[in-house]
Amino acid sequence: MAVSPAAPTGAGEPAAPPLARATVIALSAYFVVVWGAGFVASRIALEHAAPFTYIGIRYGLAFCVAVVAFGLRARWPTTRAEWAHIAVAGLLSHAGYLGGSHYAQRLGLSAGVTALILALQPLLTALIVSAWLHERLGVIQKLGVVVGLAGVALVVGHRIEVGGASVASMVAIVVSLACVTGGTLYQRQFCADLDLRSAVCIHFAATAAVMLPLGWVVEGFAIEWNSAIAWSLAYHVVLASIGAFSIFHVLLRHGQATSVTSLLYFTPPVAALCEWAVFGSPPTPLMWTGMAVACVGVALVTRGRPSAPEVS
């Protein structure tokens, strides 16, 4: 999805009054459902277009729409360093993230499993922060790491056993996970205080600028222009890139970003249900169990309170 876990904090804008609980639930549910179903929309698109080509076109369109929708009112970076840092974070969080996940799906990995592995991003981020930034994990977080990895092992092991996951697809999804995690850490280090609206526009522009040439050189700009591609692009640009971002921005301004983070644990089941509805491939009981276990693990990691930082 266009609004990745590495999205900037939006510190450049003033906070707004809290929203009503029913409004928060409705907006958060929209965000999560669109994010989860986006994996299935990607699978549909990849039946008619090569990954880099599709991502380049999608982000080129998203940039044009985003600038008009909210970019003109944003506070833009004032130095070259700020522009460069935001672009790097965007390339990791979007180009690397979607490039890897799209190729994983193109190589046969299901939408539900793709979403599940990428949902490990908070867990991986916590481990890296603990190892390199001396922020020790608490007992609950350590338990969450074990539980989360066990849940993914159940699902992935089952998929490999039944021939639903190739080595190439697993390499691609690992690259995707590494990129979005790197984008999160890079964002935290270099882009903490910026306007979310201008940052997203720069993310979109940088991704399109890299993916369009890659699509031409690597894939021969392979795409079949038909109704499936049109609907997929409309979904990703309007509902995801603009709609989901706008929802995230509203919740962030009203101090409700935690609601989105909490509900993201439902992304893998949503993706699996949508894939079942569209492609008729129901998840097995073992996959449901693994998804539930993994989501609990990620929840423990993100909600567990870490110990005091180590003194180096």
Poorly predicted regions: 1-9, 305-312
How many helical stretches? 12
Oligomer: single chain
How much of the polypeptide forms β-strand, as a percent range? under 5%
Report the end-to-end length measured between terminal Cα atoms.
38 Å
- Please summarize the sheet with the most strands: none
Counting structural domains, the number is 1
Overall pLDDT metric:
83
What order do the SSEs take from the amino end to the carboxyl end, as H and E? HHHHHHHHHHHH
Shape field:
globular
Which structural class best describes the helix and strand composition?
A: mainly alpha
The whole-angstrom Rg is 19 Å
Fraction of residues in helix: over 70%
* Total beta strand runs: 0
List the helices and strands and how they pair.
Layout (H helix, E strand, L loop, with lengths): L20 H25 L5 H19 L10 H27 L4 H8 L2 H12 L6 H23 L5 H24 L5 H24 L7 H27 L3 H7 L3 H13 L5 H19 L9
Helix pairs in contact: 1-4, 1-9, 1-11, 2-8, 2-9, 3-7, 3-8, 4-11, 5-7, 6-12, 9-10
Description:
This protein has 312 residues and is mainly alpha-helical. It has one domain. 73% of the residues lie in helices and 0% in strands. It contains 12 helices and no strands. The protein has helices spanning 21-45, 51-69, 80-106, 111-118, 121-132, 139-161, 167-190, 196-219, 227-253, 257-263, 267-279, 285-303. Helix 4 runs antiparallel to helix 11, helix 5 crosses helix 7 and helix 6 runs antiparallel to helix 12 (285-303). The protein is globular. The model is unreliable at 1-9 and 305-312 (pLDDT under 50).
